[in-house]
Amino acid sequence: MITDLKSALGSPSIYLPTVATIADVRPISKMEKVFTVELPKGMSLNHKPGQFVEVSVFGVGEAPISISSSPSRSNGRFELCVRKAGDLTGALHTLAAGDRIGVRGPFGEGFPIERFRGKDMLFAPGGLGLAPLRSLINQVLDERGNFGRVIILYGARNPSELLFTDELAVWGKRQDVELLLTVDRADEAWKGNVGVITTLFSKIQIYPRNTVAFTVGPPVMYRFVIMECLAKGIAEGNIWVSLERRMKCGVGKCGHCQINHVYACQAGPAFPYSEIKHLGEAL
Amino acid sequence: MTFHVIPKTALPDWVERLGKSHRVVGPRPLHGQFIFDEVTSAGELDLSYPTTVLPPKKYLLPQREELFTFRGRGGETRLADDGRPTVVLGVHTCDLHAIQLLDLVFAQGNRDQHYLSRRESVALVSIECLKPCTPHSFCKSMGTLGVIDGYDLHLTDLGEEYAVDVGTEKGQALLQGFASVREGTEADNRLFNRVMGEKWPRFPLRLDFDITELPSLLSTSYDSSLWEELGQRCLACGMCTNVCPTCYCFNVIDEVDFTLSAGKRSRVWDSCQLDRFATVAGGHNFRALQAARVRHRFFRKGKYQTDAYGLLGCVGCGRCAQVCLVHITPVDTWNELNRRRSVASASAVVKEAKA
């Protein structure tokens, strides 16, 4: 019998992590590594795209990390794409296959994928924002028949910061995926689009009444992508974001992730724009 | 009502009896102020204390609380266990209201076993406030100058004796076999009613509006210029949240021993008023302005907690007002918002009349 990691939570403490093993570490850029994590035998993460886990390196601390792999490809393992940015992620980057870490979760409301059946899916991640959206993208591609068009607009600051380039190449070759890439600053080898991610919106035609858009990226990006989506005629309830916050406890207590009265770790981090546009602290 | 009576002369005996089975905690003087602290005799207690520096919250959510220990990066973890049976004597009704909110916060949704197990081991003996404790308190305005439940025992000072109301079986057990307790008589009841009747006029109403208006007042004051003005004054020291009986935000930290591989994970009080409270690893601060942080605190106290739990996030104890070095207080803040709203709506009426 397979038990969910979540059911281990709360017994005997909601703050006690389950010890998991790093099965593989794969650097994918100068700053980012992909960690494949294996839970104890008989345990499964059973997550939804858009959820996150609290990752512990004992002696260093704990931090929220979005789940980068899709439930459809879990197989008892899951992937975390981690940028070396702080204490915890710095320590994580020193670990190798076979090392052990603590995991709690999955936390938050993921994207309600069942509500998007038959819709055209427009993904617009920026930079590291592809890490959480990759979970949803691969889930959609694994159930490709349930969806309309799949459009991926992906931007990074420069070509070396594009993540998951091997997968981008695969997506780019698929007939049923429309992939457009851009970089803020090109190098000599770059032959594609140059400019921020919003410059890609003028290159696509969509049917707004059947389109659901998803964007995750650096804080400055959201308002501009949302404006592009609204200008295209996509409904406010069909523009989804995932908001980065300091989810210290993950269980709605510690207060760090609050967006006005909303605990991002409980109600989010995935939100439709219609639900957060009235929150002064959201975007 | 029916209640028991304990003569004040029996207090030393009672404290000694309680001390045999419990850690006994109560208000005691220290350097001209009062603190809740462990006592071994009634002589150390002063149940007529004005207010304490920190609320009794610290026995339910300690400033630093070990969650578990670990050995090695493999994380062989062991849960901390500290559930000494404790009696807290002399809890004011404002602090009792605050604990009722904390009980909801830590029991609803994901149950926080650390808080709840401490809560289980703590008995609360509250005491009726008969006169204002400090010039800063505004419990009457907040509706916290009285309680109907939430205590295990509740004391009312009748002069020579205490009236004792038993709130729970846990409270009943604290009186078990204590010969000095007697049933209240008709004469005690008359005295009790006189004492209670005389107390209410002694307390001022310090808010210019009814407390039920506070959430709606705040909902129309989000963009008030007052937040910027307070943000300019605020020193971001976090004292207001440190002394608050309803604040419970925390950080979680790991500490390692000299082997650098074994250690413990603890939670420590944190404050939304500190500048890096909402900062993420990449360096982005999602509440970068002090004005926004001051606003967040007053919205939590006056609206967010009420919306989420149906209880006020501020109980009017006045501790934050007392410790603030730049005199930012809930009473002044909410009254000023109310004044500005009145001025704004009055000028809107005048404008409409002119048009």
Provide a descriptive summary of the structure in words.
The complex is a heterodimer of chains A (283) and B (355). The relative contact order of chain A is 0.14. With 283 residues, chain A is an alpha/beta fold. Chain A has two domains: 3-106, Elongation Factor Tu (Ef-tu), domain 3 (Beta Barrel); 113-276, Nucleotide-binding domain of ferredoxin-NADP reductase (FNR) module (Rossmann fold, 3-Layer(aba) Sandwich), CATH 3.40.50. In chain A, the strands form four sheets. In chain A, strands 12-11-10-9-13-14-17 form a seven-stranded mixed sheet, sandwiched between helices. A six-stranded antiparallel sheet of chain A has the order 6-5-8-2-3-7. The longest helix of chain A has 13 residues, at 130-142. Chain A has helices at residues 5-8, 87-92, 130-142, 165-173, 221-231, 264-267, 273-276, and strands spanning 3-4, 18-27, 32-38, 43-44, 52-57, 61-66, 77-83, 100-107, 120-123, 150-156, 178-183, 193-194, 211-215, 239-242, 258-259, 262-263, 270-272. Chain B has 355 residues and is α+β, with helices and mostly antiparallel strands. In chain B, 36% of the residues lie in helices and 20% in strands. Chain B has an eight-stranded mixed sheet, with helices on both faces. In chain B, α8 crosses α10 (290-309). Chain B is flat. The chains are: A alpha/beta (283), B alpha+beta (355). At the A-B interface, β6, α2, β8 and β15 of A face β4, β5, β11, β12 and α10 of B.
According to DSSP, the number of beta strands of chain A is: 17
Low-confidence parts of chain A lasting 5 or more residues at pLDDT below 50? Answer: none
Helix fraction of chain A by DSSP (H/I, runs of at least 4): 10-25%
Shape of chain B: flat
Give the strand order, joined by hyphens, for the main sheet of chain A: 12-11-10-9-13-14-17
Spatially, the strands of the biggest sheet of chain B line up as: 3-2-6-7-8-9-1-10
- What oligomeric state best describes the polypeptide chains here? heterodimer
Secondary-structure-derived class of chain A = alpha/beta
The CATH architecture name of the largest domain in chain A reads 3-Layer(aba) Sandwich
Mean pLDDT of chain B: 94
Give me the strand/helix succession of chain B.
EHEEEEEHHEHEEHEHHHHEEHHH
User: Mind describing the biggest β-sheet of chain B?
Assistant: 8 strands, mixed
Rg of chain A is 18 Å
Radius of gyration of chain B: 23 Å
Number of domains of chain B: 2
The biggest beta sheet of chain A, please? Answer: 7 strands, mixed
Total DSSP E strands of chain B = 12
Number of helical regions of chain A: 7
Please indicate the count of domains of chain A.
2
Topology as H/E string of chain A? EHEEEEEEHEEHEHEEEHEEEHEH
Which word captures the global form of chain A? Answer: globular
